[in-house]
Specification:
The protein is α/β, with parallel strands linked by helices. Bound molecules: nicotinamide-adenine-dinucleotide (NAD) and magnesium ion.
Length: 359
């Protein structure tokens, strides 16, 4: 088992990465302070892992909340089911919520923990590659609104993140690729050596080679932990974690949540951000081609859906959370491994990128 730490003063917490963590009752107990525990999961993950986790929680008063699967259910009314169950079972302020599932469950459970009785403890047990390398770390929690993705939420840090790499064995290949999008993102924004390592190992990663996957998760979590420690509430540098996401969120919203996976939209969105960075004269066309080849080798789309026009992007990107005072800001690359957040781009570059991708 590997351990990393997210350094946030009195809100610091460990990330554990390893095989068979789900059943390690001692590890769990270290991060549960009361007698009540509420495990929140979805109806896909529940039959796979809920029993094993509940075995490890013997001795606690365990409430199980099984929500419908999918991004389309990352809503206010689904969240209400968690509160209803907690209140019906009389969970008090010392309860601990455990998120067992992908990013949808992690984001919703974290937000439920932030709200319930003004804040209770929670633990992340991410079971998708994407949630293991990204959403379970850093304390962004929330739900979607029909007008925009993740528009309601809170910054609320977990007490611990337990990443059981065995859970990936049941993950569909398409979801593995979606997780690889966020892993490639870390190389592009921050670590060109990691990018080269990913190029060398991409097929082993898609095949879920255990030591390669563990290494990729650890390096990704390390980068995310460093960025979050530097800027917990996204006043500045944290926004670089959104490379490809402004374009990607527009794709997700346009296609209907759940049609394109988040990671797939981020894959195509990163290619658009790379293209724009090239048009701004910051990176070479060879850099764009190199990164695009890696994204494609991960099994991800490298261009947006054919039914999206430039004006669809412009309309949807106007509600992005990086829009400040009406001005769109984008994450672009000054070089491979070096991201910046900028509003100072030539709008002609943006228009050219949007037009170029109407393939
Ligand atoms: P997800 O939670 O929808 O999970 C994907 C699918 O895999 C679901 O059908 C789920 O039931 C299934 N699943 C989960 N674990 C499984 C397993 N071990 N075996 C088989 N099937 C399994 O999607 P995701 O990609 O994990 O997360 C995407 C969400 O995360 C989005 O809502 C996105 O906004 C959010 N996100 C949040 C952050 C953050 O910082 N909070 C960062 C990135 C993404
Ligand atoms: Mg993301």
């Amino acid at each position: 088992m590997q351990q990393l730490n997210v350094e946030l003063g009195d809100r610091s917490y460990p990330i554990y990465i390893g095989s068979d963590l789900l059943s390690q009752s001692g590890l769990l107990a270290r991060h549960i302070s009361g007698k009540q525990v509420c495990v929140v999961t979805d109806d896909t993950v529940a039959p796979l892992y809920l029993d094993a986790l509940c075995q490890a929680l013997q001795g606690y008063q365990v409430l199980q909340v099984v929500l419908p699967t999918g991004e389309a259910f990352k809503t206010w009314s689904t969240l209400q089911q968690v509160f209803d169950a907690l209140l019906a079972a009389r969970h008090d302020r010392k309860t601990t919520l455990i998120a067992l599932g992908g990013g949808v469950i992690g984001d919703m459970t974290g937000f439920a923990a932030a709200c319930y009785q003004r804040g209770v403890d929670f633990i992340q047990m991410p079971t998708t590659l994407l949630s293991q390398v990204d959403s379970s770390v850093g304390g962004k929690t929330g739900i979607n609104h029909p007008a925009g993705k993740n528009m309601l939420g809170a910054f609320y840090q977990p007490k611990a993140v337990l990443i059981d790499t065995d859970s990936l064995k049941t993950l569909p290949a398409r979801e593995v690729s979606a997780g690889l999008a966020e892993i490639i993102k870390y190389g592009l924004i921050r670590d060109v050596a990691f990018l080269a390592w990913l190029e060398d190992n991409i097929s082993g990663l898609r095949a879920l080679d255990p030591s390669l996957v563990t290494e990729a998760i650890a390096r990704s979590c390390q980068i995310k932990a460093e960025v979050v420690a530097a800027d917990e509430r996204e006043g500045g540098v944290r926004a670089i974690l959104n490379l490809g996401h402004t374009f990607g969120h527009a794709i997700e919203a346009h296609q209907g949540y759940g049609q394109w996976l988040h990671g797939e939209a981020v894959g195509a969105g990163m290619v658009m951000a790379l293209d724009m960075s090239c048009r701004e004269g910051w990176i070479s066309r060879a850099d764009v081609d190199r990164a695009t080849a890696l994204i494609a080798a991960a099994g991800l789309p490298v261009s947006p859906p054919g039914n999206m026009q430039a004006n669809d992007f412009m309309d949807l990107m106007a509600v992005d959370k990086k829009v400040l005072d009406g001005q769109l800001r984008l994450v672009l690359l000054k070089a491979l491994g070096q991201a910046v957040v900028s509003a100072e781009f030539d709008s002609a570059s943006l228009q050219a990128t949007l037009a170029a991708d109407q393939s």
